[in-house]
C-alpha cells in the first residue's frame, strides 16, 4: 500500500481468548453490579461514581491492581444526543483487553463496538499521536470481521481527507485507487489531461486544466456477477474557487473537497472486502480547481458528455461540472443503481449541519432502506427532495443548464436537480451532499476528515439490490 493510508492494527478487536477485564455499564442512579466486592462498592462510592454519562471508575483488587471498571452510561435521553458513547471509555481505559460485562440490545451493542474501534483512529502522518491502547473483546454473536472492515474503511476515508493537498493531488488520488484495486484484484483505467477532451469528458477537462496537476477520470471495476452498482465520487483535491476565488476563510478546508471520492473509495473497500455478489464500477473525476491563464471563466459555455450545454456562472460551483460528465458515463451502462457522493454545497450545511448529510432520490423504497440502515449503523442521513418546481432555476437563457443559479435559496436542491439531468437511462439514482468533516472531536470521531454515508449504503445494499 502507499503511504497515503494504512489499515491500523489498533482498530481491531482484542483476541477472543485474551485475558480481559470486565467493563460494567452503569446508568445514572442504577445499582452497581452484584458481582462487585464490598470493597469495590465502597471504593466506587468514595470516588463519587453515580453513572453519569461518560464517567469512569477503575476498580482495584486488594493488591491495588486494576481488575475491572465502571463506565457511566447516563440516561437514555442524554445518550440519544450523540453516537458511540462507549468510545469515550476506550479513550480513558488503561491498556489491555476489556470485555463488556453488561448486556445491551444487539443493534446498540454493534454500534458501540464499532465506535470503540473508530476511537483508535489517529492521523499521524506528520506527527506522533497518542493512540488509545484499550482493546475490546468482540461481544458474543457480533460479526466482528464486518465491523473491522467498516473501521478499515473509515480509516481510509479519514486518511485521504486529512492529507493536505500538497501531498494529495489527482496523481496521489489515482495511486490510492490503484493500491486499493491491487488489494482486491480490481481493474483500473485512467483518462488524463488532453485525452479527456478526445474521449468525451469536456467538463472534467475544463475544471482541471488550469492546474499544473493534470485532471483525470479514474475508473475501477470489480466483480463479474450480480447486479450492477456504479459509484461516482467528487475528487476535487483542492478548490480555490477558480476565477471566482474563495476568500481565505472559505478556502481553509478545501483539501477535503475530495471527500466524496474518499467516501466512495471507503465504500468500495467494504464491498470488495466482504466479497458482495455484485459488479462494481467506481468513477472518480479527480481535479484541482486552480487559477491560471487558461482557467474556465464565468459565462463560458461547454457541451457536456451528455450533450447538454452548461453555462458556467460560478467557477466555484465546479464539483457538479465534473460529476456531470462522470454521471453521464455511469448512466451509459444503465446500472441497477447509481450512487453519487460529493462535498457539494454549503447550503446543505446550513440546512442540516455537519453531522447529518442530506441525500436525494426519487425511489421511496431506496430512501427508506438508506434511512433505516443509517440509524442501525451509526451513519445518520436525511432525505431531501428533488423539488421539480425549482427546475427552472437551473435553466438559463443561453444554455440548457446553469451550474449556479442566482440567489441564495435551495442551493443543495438545485445542485441535486442539476446532477439528475445527467442520469436518464438508470432507474435508481441517489446523490449524497456530504460535509465529510468533524469540526470538533466527539466519541469515535476525531476532529478532521470523516466517513459519511458508506455504512448506511452498505447496510442497505442487500435489500436494495436483492443480494
TrEMBL record:
Gene3D superfamilies documented for this protein: Leucine Aminopeptidase, subunit E, domain 1, Zn peptidases
Domain Cytosol aminopeptidase span(s) in chain numbering: 156-455
EC id: 3.4.11.1
Presence of the UniProt keyword Transcription regulation in the record: no
Pfam families xrefs: Peptidase_M17, Peptidase_M17_N_1
Ranges for domain M17 aminopeptidase N-terminal: 35-139
One GO CC annotation: cytoplasm
GO MF, any single term: manganese ion binding
Keywords, comma-separated and alphabetical: Aminopeptidase, Hydrolase, Manganese, Protease
Top-level EC class as recorded in UniProt: hydrolase
Similarity comment: Belongs to the peptidase M17 family.
Protein name: Leucyl aminopeptidase-3
Taxon lineage: Bacteria, Pseudomonadati, Pseudomonadota, Alphaproteobacteria, Rhodobacterales
Amino acid at each position: 500500500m502507499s503511504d497515503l493510508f494504512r489499515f491500523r492494527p489498533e482498530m481491531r478487536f482484542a483476541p477472543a481468548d485474551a485475558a480481559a477485564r470486565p467493563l460494567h455499564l452503569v446508568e445514572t442512579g442504577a445499582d452497581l453490579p452484584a458481582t462487585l466486592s464490598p470493597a469495590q462498592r465502597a471504593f466506587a462510592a468514595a470516588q463519587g461514581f453515580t453513572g453519569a454519562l461518560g464517567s469512569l471508575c477503575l476498580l482495584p483488587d486488594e493488591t491495588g491492581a486494576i481488575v475491572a471498571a465502571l463506565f457511566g452510561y447516563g440516561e437514555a435521553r442524554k445518550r440519544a444526543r450523540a453516537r458511540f458513547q462507549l468510545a469515550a471509555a476506550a479513550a480513558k481505559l488503561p491498556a489491555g483487553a476489556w470485555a463488556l460485562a453488561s448486556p445491551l440490545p444487539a443493534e446498540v451493542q454493534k454500534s458501540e463496538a464499532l465506535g470503540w474501534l473508530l476511537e483508535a483512529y489517529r492521523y499521524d502522518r506528520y506527527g506522533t499521536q497518542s493512540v488509545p491502547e484499550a482493546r475490546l473483546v468482540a461481544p458474543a454473536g457480533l460479526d466482528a470481521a464486518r465491523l473491522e472492515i467498516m473501521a478499515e474503511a473509515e480509516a481510509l476515508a479519514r486518511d485521504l481527507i486529512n492529507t493536505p493537498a500538497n501531498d494529495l493531488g489527482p496523481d496521489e488520488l489515482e495511486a490510492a485507487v490503484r493500491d486499493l484495486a491491487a488489494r482486491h484484484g480490481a481493474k483500473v483505467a485512467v483518462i488524463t489531461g488532453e485525452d479527456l477532451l478526445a474521449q468525451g469528458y469536456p467538463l472534467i477537462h475544463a475544471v482541471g486544466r488550469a492546474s499544473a496537476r493534470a485532471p483525470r477520470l479514474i475508473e475501477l471495476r470489480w466483480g463479474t456477477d450480480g447486479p450492477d452498482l456504479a459509484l461516482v465520487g467528487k475528487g476535487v483535491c483542492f478548490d480555490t474557487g477558480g476565477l471566482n476565488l474563495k476568500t481565505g476563510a472559505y478556502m481553509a478546508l478545501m483539501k477535503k473537497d475530495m471527500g466524496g471520492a474518499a467516501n466512495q473509495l471507503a465504500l468500495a473497500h467494504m464491498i470488495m472486502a466482504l466479497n458482495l455478489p455484485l459488479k462494481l464500477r467506481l468513477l472518480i473525476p479527480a481535479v484541482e480547481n486552480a487559477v491560471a491563464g487558461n482557467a474556465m471563466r464565468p459565462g463560458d459555455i461547454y457541451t457536456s458528455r451528455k450533450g447538454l450545454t452548461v453555462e458556467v456562472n460560478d467557477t466555484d460551483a465546479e464539483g457538479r461540472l465534473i460529476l456531470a460528465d462522470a454521471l453521464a458515463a455511469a448512466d451509459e451502462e444503465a446500472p441497477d443503481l447509481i450512487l453519487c457522493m460529493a462535498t457539494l454545497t454549503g447550503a446543505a450545511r446550513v440546512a442540516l449541519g455537519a453531522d447529518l448529510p442530506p441525500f436525494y432520490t426519487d425511489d421511496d423504497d431506496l430512501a427508506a432502506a438508506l434511512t433505516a440502515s443509517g440509524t442501525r449503523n451509526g451513519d445518520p442521513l436525511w432525505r431531501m427532495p428533488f423539488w421539480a418546481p425549482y427546475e427552472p432555476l437551473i435553466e438559463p437563457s443561453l444554455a440548457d443548464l446553469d451550474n449556479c443559479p442566482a440567489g441564495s435559496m435551495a442551493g443543495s436542491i438545485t445542485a441535486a436537480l442539476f446532477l439528475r439531468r445527467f442520469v436518464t437511462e438508470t432507474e435508481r439514482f441517489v446523490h449524497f451532499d456530504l460535509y465529510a468533516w468533524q469540526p470538533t472531536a466527539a466519541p469515535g470521531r476525531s476532529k478532521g476528515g470523516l466517513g459519511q454515508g458508506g455504512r448506511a449504503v452498505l447496510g442497505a445494499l442487500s435489500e436494495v439490490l436483492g443480494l
